Amino acid sequence: MRRRLAIVLLVLLLLVPLRSTLAWNKAGHMVIGAIVYERLKQTNPRALGKLIELLKQHPRRRLWRPTYQPVP
């Protein structure tokens, strides 16, 4: 019985760090994307243009394109 409890506790302790990775969701991706967009717009507009063209060629573009709202 003690061994089983020890194993359960060990598994739970190993899973605790995984909880923080669940925070990386759609909203987190959108925030990072907005930050990158603004920085590239200010520091390297040419690279931003290349990035936008690359995204237009993305094979799964139809999945995220309807939710994309350009930053003015």
What is the secondary structure topology, with strand pairs?
Layout: H1 2-21, H2 26-43, H3 45-56, H4 61-64
Give an overview in words.
By secondary structure, this protein is mostly helical. It is built from four helices and no strands. The protein has a domain at 23-72. The chain has helices at residues 2-21, 26-43, 45-56, 61-64. It starts with a helix and ends in an 8-residue tail after the last helix.
Task: Explain briefly what this protein structure is.
75% of the residues lie in helices and 0% in strands. With 72 residues, it is mostly helical.
Throw out a few tags for this protein.
72 residues; 75% helix; mainly alpha
Strand content: under 5%
Largest sheet: none
Number of strands: 0
State the oligomer.
single chain
Mean pLDDT over all positions: 78
Shape: elongated
Helical/strand content category: mainly alpha
Low-pLDDT runs of 5+ residues are none
Radius of gyration: 20 Å
Roughly how much helix do the residues carry, as a percent range? Answer: over 70%
User: What is the end-to-end distance?
Assistant: 62 Å
Number of helices: 4
Task: Name the helix and strand elements from N-terminus to C-terminus, one letter apiece.
Answer: HHHH
